[in-house]
Amino acid sequence: MSTASKITLGASIAFATGAFVFINYSQNSERAALRQGPIKDAERQQARKTKKQQANELEHREQEEMKRKFAALQPLSSEIIRGEGDEQGGGKRS
């Protein structure tokens, strides 16, 4: 066997081995990433839910504070205020 053919055979074997190792590593990496996908998705959804809950709680506190301030300025009661001469609430005047 000539030197050129030995070099070609060695290079072919090295290339095939390198390609095999690269493809195997790539597939394993992709599998690991696919396994992590649902886990990361669940974490993102939980974080989004937590942020939304915090925003809702903040808005609720602000609304309660505004209600308290407005109630202090103008107390709420169950009394119905009617216009003058409108005793029956029908809106017709005799």
TrEMBL record:
InterPro entries: Pet117. The keyword Transit peptide applies. The keyword Mitochondrion applies. Keywords: Membrane, Mitochondrion, Transit peptide, Transmembrane, Transmembrane helix. It holds the Pfam family PET117. Residues 33-94 are annotated as: Disordered. It is found in: Mitochondrion. Residues 57-68 have a biased composition (Basic and acidic residues). One of its GO terms (cellular component) is mitochondrion. Its main location: mitochondrion. GO terms for biological process: mitochondrial respiratory chain complex IV assembly. The chain crosses the membrane at residues 6-25. It comes from the Eukaryota. Belongs to the PET117 family. This is PET117. It comes from Candida theae.
